Amino acid sequence: MSQSLYDIPVRSSDGRERTLGEFKGKVLLVVNVASKCGLTPQYEGLEKLYREKAAEGLEILAFPANDFKAQEPGTDEEIREFCTSKYDVTFPLFAKISVVGAGQHPLYRSLTQAKPTATGDPPFRERLKGYGIEPNAAPDVLWNFEKFLVNRSGEVVARFAPSVTADDPDLLRTIQTELTSRQTEA
Fold first, then answer.
1. Is 184 among the domain residues?
2. Which of 19, 72, 75, 10 shows the shortest CA–CA distance to 43?
3. How many domains does the chain have?
């Protein structure tokens, strides 16, 4: 049996060792983020979504990654400072990890295995090709700001391409469905 998402060790951006177990019973939107990406303004929408839905049980968990065109070059402290000063981010920010390749973090290995394809993937894949970038093959993360939705029981229930923003109707509908479900692991 594979390891539960809740048991995978992660580090917060301030260096504390943690697991996602502290978020058990909540709906999680796990996002790989970057500070110097064309999609970086998505922080604003993610923060708005977090402020609107946190009381209902939504947690947005941001994992900085420097895997795509070195768009997250800073230290954990620099990333935290950027996110809080530029976008007033209050959702949990974790230490920088790798989300693809040989050094892929176990969390992202589990997420991508659980949901090998993303909603909105083909259009974004073509967009990358238009920029002369050869996209990663599924199940790998395509780019910064890809989103994984985890239900209250710790199951990955949806995956959204980087171009799917926090105000996307399909994303919001899927989140609301999971927030409405009170089913948790015993």
1. no
2. 72
3. 1
